[in-house]
Structures are given as structure tokens and as C-alpha cells.
């Protein structure tokens, strides 16, 4: 199960006792969840008004950072293409993948997302706790906003390159009506540098090939007898040459079209044909060159976003806990990994433990519809007597 519950409850005589009381009832006896202390440092509280305003803003920031995190993960899956089944093992947290080889990166299990949140430690270097809560939120917002902007730029560049390559590859393999003919024709198929004569390429439907052989010399006057050659044939069409006088080209094209013979616009030029082949080679090379650095950038910045997201969750728990439980700051944040089959029972146990914190709640912990709690960033469906946030770390299939 990829869902975790991040909760907090007021400290009893000690915060350790708060944790043990919850853990004893959910983990050891009933096997309802695996539990972890969630360490939040001594952050600056500020005023009550600041906390109330920040609570709503942190809710929006939470949604934004999660969406960018999932966008980076999804785009990494796109870029990996046929290696997409390895996406899970490429989505790591709290590591610098730029300094790791691919093999060592995949072995770095300490970067596993579940390990990161169950062993969460506040990043003092990135988010100094001497700063105000608002400043820390602004640092995260700016950092993730920049990653979001860079992702748009990098994905646009790579997608355009990929699209150009795909279009050229389609032209190499598509129908004779549209595909690139450079790989099919040779110099000897054409009359070149003639003042009067020109060689055309004609695509003939398979069912009309006998008609072509019987009648191509009669389509107009001034067609060179026995000048047609079959160059290539697929399951639908044949590609033929025909040589004629330049002065009747337009007339020939008109009458050929009436017979469902399609004249391809093509001029044999060795330099242009070579340039076309070089272009596809260049696109393939460019894509390979960009692939490695782009994958590394996505790995590193997925980690940055994911870690920032969990820090936002920590900020939210801190702010809501102070608003709920008051000052001085005395609460224990706890991370629960529920047993999927027993989530209802787990809710009931938590309600037994913490239902007294809010007399307005019904059995099971959900607030009455009439209850309105201004400043607390909860919807009606996820308000409980204790501070609660859900974290789903499935970055592949889960939709926020």
C-alpha cells in the first residue's frame, strides 16, 4: 500500500508517551499500521493571524508541489519509453543522482520514497529554521516553480526533436504516396541534365499495374517508348519511372491523375538526398545526446520536488497542530502506514484515542456537515479530531 497517514496529537507528559500510546494500540496488538515518529524541528511560530493565513496558503502550495512532482515523474516515464517498466526504480528521493552511475543509482535503496518519508529529517541547509514559516514556504514555492518552468522548456525541446524524428521515420516506412523516396531510387533510374527530357516518378495502385504497363505510353504524346521501370512495390502500390518530353509534363500529370496514377513531385539531386539522410542521422544522434542529461535532470529534480513536498506536509502539520492544540508547542507528529484491509478499524482506534480533542465529531472521526473551521485547511471529508494528512507516494499510477 502506497498510502501513508501523517497525523499529530498533543503531547502527554512527554511526546514519547503520545507516540507509544498510539503505537501500542495500532501496531503491536492489532497489526493495523506500521508507525514512525515524524521529526519536525523547532520552527518559528509567529502570530496567530499569520498561522491562520499561512494555513490556507500551505494547502495551495501542497497541491502545487505535488502536481509538479507527479508531472516530473510522468515525463520521466515518457522519456524512458520502452524502459518505462523501470520508472519505479528511477524515482528516488534525497540523493544526488548526477554523481551516481546508473547501476549504483538503482542500488541506492536509501533513496526509496518510503524510506525517505519514514526516516524524514528536516533539511536545515535548504530550509533554515531560523527563517519564518512564510519565508520557508516562499523558498519552496520559488524552488518548485523554477523546476516547473524548466520542465516546460526542456520537455518542449525534447518533444519537438522526438516529433521531428518520428515524422521522418514515418516518411521512411509509410505509403508510397507519402514516404521519402530517397532510399528507393538510384541515379540510373533518371535522365539527368537533358534540355528536353525529364523522368517522373509515378505511384500506381496495385490493381492498376497491368493497366499502367498497357497504357502509360498513350497517356499523352511525346512519351519515350519502353521508358518505364518498376522501382519498388509494396502491398498497395508500385513505384514506376516514365521518361517524357518536358513540354508535355503538365498534360501528362493531368491525364495520369484521371486514371488514378499519382505523379510524385521529386527531383533527383544527390546533394539534397544525402542531406536528407544526414538529417535523420543527426536527429537520432541529437536525441541520444539529449536523452542521458535529460533523464539525469528529471531524476535529480524529481527528488528535489518530492523532498520539498514532504517538507510542505511537515509545515502543514506544524501550523495546524499549533492552531489546534495551542501554545506552548507540544505535539507529536506520527507517520502511519495503514494495513489496507483494516483502515476502518484504524480510524476507530484513532477516534478512541483522540475523539475527546473535539466534541463536535461523530463516531469514526468525521465532522458534522454543519461544522465550519475557518483557517484550517481541511475539507469536510477529511477533518478529524487530530491533525491528519494523507500522502500517496505512488508516482506512477496514482492521480492526485
TrEMBL record:
InterPro entries: ATPase_V1-cplx_csu, Vac_ATP_synth_c_sf
CC terms in the record's Gene Ontology section: lysosomal membrane; vacuolar proton-transporting V-type ATPase, V1 domain
SUPFAM superfamilies xrefs: Vacuolar ATP synthase subunit C
Gene Ontology molecular function, alphabetical: proton-transporting ATPase activity, rotational mechanism
Matches recorded under CDD domains: V-ATPase_C (cd14785)
Keywords: Hydrogen ion transport, Ion transport, Transport
Known function: Subunit of the V1 complex of vacuolar(H+)-ATPase (V-ATPase), a multisubunit enzyme composed of a peripheral complex (V1) that hydrolyzes ATP and a membrane integral complex (V0) that translocates protons. V-ATPase is responsible for acidifying and maintaining the pH of intracellular compartments and in some cell types, is targeted to the plasma membrane, where it is responsible for acidifying the extracellular environment. Subunit C is necessary for the assembly of the catalytic sector of the enzyme and is likely to have a specific function in its catalytic activity.
Family to which this protein belongs: Belongs to the V-ATPase C subunit family.
PANTHER family with a match to the protein in the record: V-TYPE PROTON ATPASE SUBUNIT C
SUBUNIT field: V-ATPase is a heteromultimeric enzyme made up of two complexes: the ATP-hydrolytic V1 complex and the proton translocation V0 complex. The V1 complex consists of three catalytic AB heterodimers that form a heterohexamer, three peripheral stalks each consisting of EG heterodimers, one central rotor including subunits D and F, and the regulatory subunits C and H. The proton translocation complex V0 consists of the proton transport subunit a, a ring of proteolipid subunits c9c'', rotary subunit d, subunits e and f, and two accessory subunits.
Protein name: V-type proton ATPase subunit C
Originating organism: Frankliniella occidentalis (Western flower thrips)
Lineage: Eukaryota, Metazoa, Ecdysozoa, Arthropoda, Hexapoda
Gene name for this UniProt entry: LOC113205702
Amino acid at each position: 500500500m502506497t498510502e501513508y497517514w501523517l497525523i499529530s496529537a498533543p503531547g502527554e507528559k512527554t511526546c514519547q508517551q503520545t507516540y507509544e500510546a498510539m503505537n501500542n494500540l495500532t501496531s503491536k496488538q492489532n497489526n493495523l499500521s506500521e508507525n514512525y515518529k515524524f521529526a519536525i524541528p523547532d520552527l518559528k511560530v509567529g502570530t496567530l493571524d499569520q498561522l491562520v493565513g499561512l494555513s490556507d496558503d500551505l494547502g495551495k502550495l501542497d497541491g502545487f508541489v505535488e502536481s509538479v512532482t507527479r508531472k516530473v515523474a510522468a515525463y520521466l516515464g515518457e522519456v524512458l519509453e520502452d524502459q518505462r517498466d523501470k520508472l519505479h526504480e528511477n524515482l528516488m528521493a534525497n540523493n544526488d543522482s548526477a554523481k551516481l552511475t546508473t547501476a549504483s543509482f538503482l542500488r541506492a535503496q536509501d533513496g526509496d520514497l518510503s524510506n525517505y518519508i519514514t526516516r524524514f529529517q528536516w533539511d536545515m541547509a535548504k530550509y533554515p529554521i531560523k527563517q519564518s514559516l512564510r519565508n520557508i514556504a516562499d523558498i519552496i514555492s520559488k524552488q518548485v516553480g523554477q523546476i516547473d518552468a524548466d520542465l516546460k522548456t526542456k520537455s518542449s525541446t525534447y518533444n519537438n526533436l522526438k516529433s521531428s524524428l518520428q515524422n521522418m521515420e514515418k516518411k521512411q516506412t509509410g505509403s508510397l504516396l507519402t514516404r521519402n523516396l530517397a532510399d528507393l531510387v538510384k541515379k540510373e533510374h533518371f535522365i539527368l541534365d537533358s534540355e528536353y527530357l525529364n523522368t517522373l516518378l509515378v505511384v500506381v495502385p496495385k490493381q492498376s499495374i497491368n493497366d499502367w504497363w498497357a497504357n502509360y505510353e498513350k497517356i499523352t504524346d511525346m512519351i519515350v517508348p519502353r521508358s518505364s521501370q518498376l522501382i519498388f512495390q509494396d502491398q498497395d502500390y508500385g513505384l514506376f519511372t516514365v521518361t517524357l518530353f518536358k513540354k508535355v509534363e503538365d498534360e501528362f500529370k493531368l491525364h495520369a491523375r484521371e486514371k488514378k496514377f499519382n505523379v510524385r513531385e521529386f527531383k533527383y539531386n544527390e546533394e539534397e538526398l544525402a542531406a536528407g539522410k544526414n538529417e535523420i542521422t543527426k536527429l537520432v544522434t541529437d536525441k541520444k545526446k539529449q536523452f542521458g542529461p535529460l533523464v539525469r535532470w528529471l531524476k535529480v529534480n524529481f527528488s528535489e520536488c518530492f523532498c520539498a513536498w514532504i517538507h510542505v506536509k511537515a509545515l502543514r502539520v506544524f501550523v495546524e497542530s499549533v492552531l489546534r492544540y495551542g501554545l506552548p508547542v507540544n505535539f507529536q507528529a506520527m507517520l502511519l502506514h495503514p494495513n489496507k484491509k483494516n483502515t476502518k478499524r484504524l480510524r476507530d482506534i484513532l477516534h478512541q484515542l483522540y475523539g475527546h480533542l473535539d466534541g463536535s465529531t461523530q463516531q469514526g472521526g468525521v465532522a458534522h456537515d454543519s461544522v465550519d473551521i475557518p483557517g484550517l485547511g481541511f475539507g469536510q471529508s477529511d477533518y478529524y479530531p487530530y491533525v491528519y494528512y494523507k500522502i500517496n507516494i505512488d508516482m506512477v499510477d496514482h492521480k492526485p
